[in-house]
Specification:
Layout: E1 4-8, H1 12-27, E2 33-38, H2 43-59, E3 64-69, H3 70-79, E4 87-89, H4 97-103, E5 113-115, E6 143-147, E7 149-150, H5 161-165, E8 169-170, H6 173-185, E9 190-194, H7 210-220, E10 226-229, H8 239-247, E11 254-260, H9 264-270, H10 276-289, E12 294-301, H11 308-321, E13 325-330, H12 348-371, E14 377-382, E15 387-390, E16 395-399, E17 408-416, E18 422-426
Parallel strand pairs: 1-2, 2-3, 3-4, 4-5, 6-9, 9-10, 11-12, 12-13, 16-18
Antiparallel strand pairs: 7-8, 14-15, 14-17, 15-16, 17-18
Helix pairs in contact: 11-12
Length: 428
């Protein structure tokens, strides 16, 4: 049994990288070690991580505690004053074997060992997966995450991610295909393409694109049953990908858009590269393919200077676009960003009220969407105890005999209750 425990916060990319970290820590033969792979997208994310770290330290006083990830990159100076932390690794260093090898030779000291470099000056090295390389698994998960790029070149005024992740860099197509091949060999039925900004894939190499990569994966692996995309930037065109969804059912009918606001003034202040018309147009194009496609979105409320009228504009846009899976975040001040210095910061109570109002709308829209699925045929990837997700990302319970995890079954949605709990029945 491994002597390494990984605790992951944040995005799907962190989930992918946590398994790389586990692999490197095990290669170094680290003993009695707990590694926190943290998130820094909001103050709350950092607070939750610190709370969990303190709890684990109390419960495991003799363990070696290593902090890495975005919060470690962003807040290493404050973390190094914490007691009983063994080491802090930056976002570049956490993916390099030599740091784990070095830590395996060191004993716990009064202060943590700190290996955090300037990620803007020295971005992470791109990991190239070789054809016959033995890849990790994702414990307890039926979906495999494949990283296609790293970093971000955009400078949205609220966002700390480029400061802790570095510039956009695309993995080579061959490395991505090697990842896919390795995970398919391990029996995964669904692959999710992930990264910091997957819409930017290929923009640094000039001869590749996200569409080209998606098509290449589908063409190369006829046995792959499901391919799903993570968050997309509405500033880009997805006409070719939409066309591909019509041609190949293995590309899942599920889009998640990083819209952040539905008001043009707020979007401009955020330094986003799209406007409200871009969002509406993209959602119309998606719905034209099929009204059954799920559309998710990330939205920030309470951005500095956001008026009640501007918030209501966002509310109306979400309603008009019929967003089915809504993620709402109260704006969080991140030191080092332009927005942190803006005037007219919105009181927390107002941000909470707006977030609640938008979440309630999101729940109504999702319930309405789910209810429309009753009687429809679909496939479900069984995850645990006869439960799993449909192609358009609806969580279902499956009636009848016990099904093996990681199997895909043909089903028909037979019941949807008032809370949106969905029951499906297996069909031939």
């Amino acid at each position: 049994m491994s002597d390494i425990k990984i605790i992951t916060f944040g995005c799907r990319l962190n989930t992918f990288e946590s398994e790389l970290i586990r692999q490197k820590a095990e290669n170094a033969n680290l003993k009695n070690t707990i590694i926190f792979n943290t998130c820094a997208v909001t103050k709350e994310a950092e607070r939750q991580a610190k709370q969990q770290i303190h709890k684990i330290i109390k419960e495991n006083p003799n363990s070696k505690i290593i902090i890495t990830g975005c919060s470690a990159q962003n807040s290493w100076e404050s973390l190094q004053t914490e007691e009983n932390i063994f080491a802090i690794l930056g976002n570049k260093e956490k993916l390099i074997q030599k740091y784990y090898d070095k830590l395996a030779t060191l004993k716990k000291g009064k202060k943590p060992y700190v290996f955090v470099g300037n990620i803007l000056k020295f971005p992470p090295e791109m990991i190239e997966i070789k054809a016959k390389e033995e890849l990790f698994e994702f414990p307890g998960k039926t979906k495999a995450f494949v990283q296609i790029q790293q970093g971000c070149n955009n400078r949205c005024s609220y966002c700390i991610v480029p400061l802790v992740r570095g510039k956009n860099q695309s993995f080579s197509e061959q490395s991505i295909l090697n990842q896919c091949k390795a995970f398919l060999k391990k029996g995964y039925k669904e692959i999710i393409l992930t990264g910091v900004d997957i819409s930017a894939y290929g923009s640094d190499t000039k001869n590749k694109s996200l569409f080209g990569l998606v098509k290449k994966i589908l063409d190369t692996f006829p046995t792959l049953q499901r391919l799903r995309l993570s968050s997309l930037d509405p500033a880009k065109s997805y006409d070719q990908i939409l066309g591909l969804i019509k041609q190949d059912r293995r590309l899942m009918p599920h889009f998640h858009l990083s819209i952040q606001s539905g008001d043009d003034k707020v979007l401009s202040d955020m330094r986003r590269r799209h406007n409200s018309d871009d969002i509406i147009t993209l959602c119309k194009k998606i719905r034209k393919i099929s009204k059954n496609i799920a559309i998710g979105a990330d939205v920030i409320v309470g951005f500095p200077g956001e008026t009640n009228k501007e918030f209501e504009t966002t509310y109306k846009l979400i309603k008009k676009c019929k967003i089915t899976h809504l993620h709402v975040f109260p704006y969080s001040i991140r030191q080092g960003t332009l927005a942190s210095k803006m005037e007219n910061q919105i009181p927390m109570e107002v941000k909470k009220q707006r977030a609640l109002k938008l979440r309630l709308l999101g729940e109504k829209l999702k319930l309405k969407f789910i209810k429309r699925q009753k009687g429809k045929k679909t496939t479900i990837l069984v995850e645990n105890k006869n439960q799993g997700y449909t192609e358009n990302y609806i969580f279902c319970k499956i009636e009848g005999k016990t099904l093996p995890n990681n199997s895909i079954v043909n089903a028909k949605i037979t019941k949807v209750n008032k809370q949106g709990e969905t029951i499906a029945k297996i069909i031939d």
